[in-house]
Amino acid sequence: MNQMTVDVAVIGAGSAGLTAYRAAKAHDVRAVLIERGPYGTTCARVGCMPSKLLIAAAEAAHGIEHARGFGIHAANVHVDGAAVMARVKTERDRFAGFVIDYVDQLSSEDRIRGHAKFIDSHRLQVDDHTVIDARSVVIATGSSPSVPQELRGLGDRLLTSDAVFDWDTLPQSIAVIGTGAIGLELGQALHRLGARVTLFGRSKMLAQIDDPGVLAVARTCLADELDLRLESSILSAERDGNAVRVHSRSRDGTERTEHFEFILAATGRKPNIQHLGLERTGIELHENGLPVFDPLTMQCGESAIFIAGDANNERPLLHEATDQGRIAGSNAARYPHVQPGLRHIPFSIAFTDPQIALLGQSYKSLQKGRFVIGSTSFDDQGRSRVMLKNKGVLHVYAETGSSRFIGAAMIAPHAEHLAHLLAWACQSRMTIPQMLELPFYHPVIEEGLRSALRDAKEKLMRGIPEIEHCADCTPGT
């Protein structure tokens, strides 16, 4: 058995782990990176990048199909599923390759292959070949798709988002279980690429939208295009040859039996904390087995153990993983001199069409009577209508008294760009009047944001009537 003594041991070489390793090395300490699976990160291999490649292909097909709205008619449009997936996999491998190349450049002495488990709070055993005595440890083991027990007997007819991007061609039909961001993104993309898609959701929720006004518009926008069955339950799912027979019940009690080529379980992800031996570390654990940690330092109690990224299940998004990894790695390197790190405001985007974005304080967290909502619809928003993208709504939240902008929820055309502007404003603690002093070009979608900000300002001032109709069609008003 090999014996090693290091300052920092990082378990996991994904986005959080690589960032934690780099942050620790910046303090000129001895750090090692332990990984049991393939290098390449969840984002590059099975998450952000391959899903956006599939969505990009779907947007191209959708654009051709709807060009007739502009008086342009395309004939004999054909989606080549094999070619679509070939590009997805080629570009996916290219993105993952960048990460692999980086890891290959690290010192071989810093890379440990195998499954790590705690012997105690400072010692790790990696497979049956190495024991590492570490002054501090960063857990960055990521997450895996969660699959409901009732679906597990379907064999290769059952997929998770990790398996979709290994297809050689596109399916003819698929039932998507789950209406979070992953289910909605993949379901809409596959629908636009020609598959028969049905999305099942147990609740009325979509992509974690908790603002009832935005949620209502989102349901209408997406249901106009998709077979979206909210508040539905799967009574049974059984293998039937090379298909799956799905028996479901809708909200009104109607039951249906349908056949699909595949079922996609888009029912969330679970942290990879099993079999780490956390019970031998002495740190406090929640009932679900997750460590109790400080979200500003990533430290587990007063221990020398830190946890970052999807492994802690706080905000399982790539930009959060890198922020947390940076904080965890730096604090692990300077332990016991732990310091709070910079955390950004909550911020998430679902790349549906229209896109969904949430940032800052959530609707449910707003204090009753201490906020106003500035609202604008994109139905008649100038630039959106020009592009035939005029669907959606934007709600901005402002704090009464201070007039500070504190959050937003939207389903809107190109919401990824609107959301970034608003995230920067929220992180900078700007007020609604300050935001309205900034320039707005004409004609752009951002003028819809200006309309929402004006609405919020009027409500903050109380009693001034709202601007009606297409305010952004008259610059300077």
Automatic annotation (TrEMBL):
<dbReference type="Pfam" id="PF07992">
    <property type="entry name" value="Pyr_redox_2"/>
</dbReference>
<dbReference type="GO" id="GO:0004148">
    <property type="term" value="F:dihydrolipoyl dehydrogenase (NADH) activity"/>
</dbReference>
<dbReference type="InterPro" id="IPR016156">
    <property type="entry name" value="FAD/NAD-linked_Rdtase_dimer_sf"/>
</dbReference>
<dbReference type="InterPro" id="IPR001100">
    <property type="entry name" value="Pyr_nuc-diS_OxRdtase"/>
</dbReference>
<protein>
    <submittedName>
        <fullName>Dihydrolipoyl dehydrogenase</fullName>
        <ecNumber>1.8.1.4</ecNumber>
    </submittedName>
</protein>
<dbReference type="InterPro" id="IPR036188">
    <property type="entry name" value="FAD/NAD-bd_sf"/>
</dbReference>
<feature type="domain" description="FAD/NAD(P)-binding">
    <location>
        <begin position="7"/>
        <end position="325"/>
    </location>
</feature>
<feature type="domain" description="Pyridine nucleotide-disulphide oxidoreductase dimerisation">
    <location>
        <begin position="348"/>
        <end position="451"/>
    </location>
</feature>
<keyword id="KW-0274">FAD</keyword>
<keyword id="KW-0560">Oxidoreductase</keyword>
<keyword id="KW-0285">Flavoprotein</keyword>
<dbReference type="Pfam" id="PF02852">
    <property type="entry name" value="Pyr_redox_dim"/>
</dbReference>
<dbReference type="InterPro" id="IPR036324">
    <property type="entry name" value="Mn/Fe_SOD_N_sf"/>
</dbReference>
<comment type="similarity">
    <text>Belongs to the class-I pyridine nucleotide-disulfide oxidoreductase family.</text>
</comment>
<dbReference type="InterPro" id="IPR004099">
    <property type="entry name" value="Pyr_nucl-diS_OxRdtase_dimer"/>
</dbReference>
<dbReference type="InterPro" id="IPR023753">
    <property type="entry name" value="FAD/NAD-binding_dom"/>
</dbReference>
